[in-house]
Amino acid sequence: MTPRATARAIARTPVVLESVQPQPEAEHPETQQADALPQLTQEVLGSSAALLENATDGGKVFLNGQLCWVWDAGQDDLRRLAAVQLVQVGAARVNEVAAGFGVTPESLRRWRISVSGEGVAALASVKKGPKGPTVLTGAKIIDIRGHRASGASLRATALAAGVSTDTVRRALASIEPAPAEPAVDMADSPAGAPAVSAVPTEPVLPVLPEPVDRTGERAAARAGLLESAGPVFAPAARVPLAGLFLALPALEETGLLACSMATFGSLPDGFYGLETILLDAVLRALAGEPRAEGATRFDPAALGRVLGLDRGPEVKTIRRKITHLAATGKAGELITVLATHHLNNTGEPGGDLAAVLYVDGHVRAYQGSRKIGKIHSTRLKFPTPATEETWVADAEGSPVMVVMAEPGAALTGELRRLLPELRTIIGDSRPVMVGFDRGGWSPALFKHMAETGFDVLTWRKGATENITGGLFAPVTHVDAHGETRTWTAADTVVDLPLASTGEAFQMRQISRIVAASGEGTRQIHILTTNTELPAGEVIHRMGSRWRQENYFRYARIHFDLDSHDAYTSTDDDPARSVPNPAKKKAYQKVLTARTHYAQVLADTHAAMLAIRTPDPGTSEVLITNAMQNTVNAPLSDASAALDQAETVHKEIPARVALGELAPGQQVLDTDVKLITHAIRMAAFNTATTLAREIRTNTGYARATKEAHTLTRQALTSSGDIDTTTAGYLTITLDPLPTARATTAIAELCQQLTTTQTRYPGTELILRYNIKNHT
Question: Tell me: the pLDDT tens digits for 46-72?
Answer without folding.
Answer: 778 888 887 777 888 888 878 888 888
